[in-house]
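Just wondering, does anyone understand these tokens?
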Amino acid sequence: MKSLPPSPMKFAVLALPWLAAIAINWLAPDYLGLATSVLTMGLFALSLDLALGHGGIVTLGHGAFYGIGAYAAGILAVHVWSDPLVGLAAATAIASMIGAVSGLLILHTSGLTLMMLTLAVASMVAEFANSARDLTGGDDGLTGIRPSPVLGLFKFDLWGHTAYLYTLAIIFVWTMIAWRILKSPFGRSLDGIRQNPARMVALGTPVRARLISAYALSAAMAGSAGALSAQATKTVSLTSLGVLTSGTVLMVVVLGGLRRRWGGYLGALVFVVGQNFAAEIDPFRWMLVIGTMLITVVMFFDNGLAGLVDLIHGRVGAPKAGE
């Protein structure tokens, strides 16, 4: 039986966040840089949620793929070709390839061993980037990234309109791809592997191959997020490969809610905006605000901020007594 198309109301609800995001380009032009950071962090969080939330792959080194994508796009723009779409495609492919290779090496383990191996891979990548100063700029970072106009038509302007709309378009494509994958038999099998891998093996599912594929796809998404960040900010630093970046995106995923369609973006919105305004108030103790917010969400809401949205929606939509 074919599934029915979404009702007009449901379609409007799904389209509303994207329409609001487009409207920000004109309604809040002074905050486009901040909004672009929210989008790239949201895609980064979505990539981790695919590996951790759906595949059950506990990783402390996901920032390596974000940094690989950023450096790949930046190096290509500086030394080879400045077309942003070419740089994005190359960064995505390189991050995916490294994700597949590293996944092949480490995904025969689990638990604490797997976490330590992901951390080791990230540390190796960061050390290589630090050593290759002629290519990456080392601890000074990579500068001089000047992407050419998107499709040869839309120049990256000083106010960030092109960077924002370009980032939004790429993230829309990735979100649709992720949604289709997670609704497919492959995505369903990942949930089964996360819940009971032994049972999935008994059913004949190629568990390790599925996990490696999910890890490579997750790395590709993280690489795209890094490339978008490099092209928007026109710089890349070693911190993009660091443990702090991996910890930050993990915090964003937990804050937004695991295995939720908008969880990564919701967490990114609250984290990036909260960090920005808290740092403006107190540059030395802004992490206290973020930490307090994270502890509150974890303690009182089962599924992050997405769980809070569900709670509000349920109370608003619940029938009143006697109805």
User: Anything to note?
Assistant: The chain is about 75% helix and 0% strand.
